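Continuing the batch. This is chain 6 of the set; chains 1 through 5 are on the previous pages. Same settings as before, nothing changed between runs. Recording input and output for traceability.
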Amino acid sequence: MKAKGRKNHKDISPSEIEAEPESTKKWYEDAPKDPKNAGQHTEQILIELKEEARKCHTAEVNNYNSKKQNANTQWMKSMLSKGTISDKIAAHTLLIQENPMCNLETLRNLIGLVKVSKKKECIAAMGTLVELFLSDILIPTRKLKPFHQRPLSALKEMSSEVSGKRRKLLVYWYFEDQLKEIYTSFVIALNSVGHDTVESNKDKAVTSMYKLLTGNPEQEKNLLSHIVNKLGDPSQKIASKVIYCLQQLLYKHPNMQKVVLNEIEKFLFRANISKRAQYYSLCFLSQYHLSHETSEVAKKLIEVYFAFFKSCVKTHWRIFSFYETNMVF
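Output for chain 6:
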């Protein structure tokens, strides 16, 4: 007989299960410090150490999986293949939050849902992943480092007495390297959804890229480029949304004014760009907030305006006529 008020595992939803993290710290807070660089490393050292790091990380994952065999973990894993859309996403999220370092494959699978063909899964997964990356996975103070940028030559010289530290460094370095690749794939997936024919999907993709750009420096160059490119979207609503997002970006990060201006300039003078896209670009630039502290930005802005005016004269584009017919957007 069941105890009153008690549920079987089959009656429990993922939202009712709390992750059981091994530590309340984020993964990067326990990361060991890099040793001092002893000089340049060869390509052979890179290949050897990365393979060793892969094996160390695999062993770490296997050890983690062998220890985490409680009912909640097993039930969540079963939901990954048998549950509803919300169950699957919740189960993915809880496993990743519990231990990001040992759940890279789970993270890859969750990103795999961010496809136009996935429809409902795509939209739900996008929002979840944005929050997951910003709150639990990405390092807030710096960009992720690829494996080849580590002081590999110093690690190669470590003696057997510090093999434990050496192994820990390899595991962390490999994890961060793979995490950087995975996050890059997520940004690419978001950009692909941003080119969907369904306006609501494009809107969600732009919003997701904007949140990532404002929340963390990782992949900021690509994210900014993808967002600016959407100024050329045939949908008036999406172009207006991009202008709003860029305005909010500069409000939160005013030191990015010049970077954004440079990106808009490249977009404005791109070959085969539509007049509508140029129009929306100018709409955004006209709303730049300038001050005595941003004199260089103001100078650059004037240069862009004059260069564009010369281009219009050269191509005989009646910019003011086009502007008058597109006053409301």
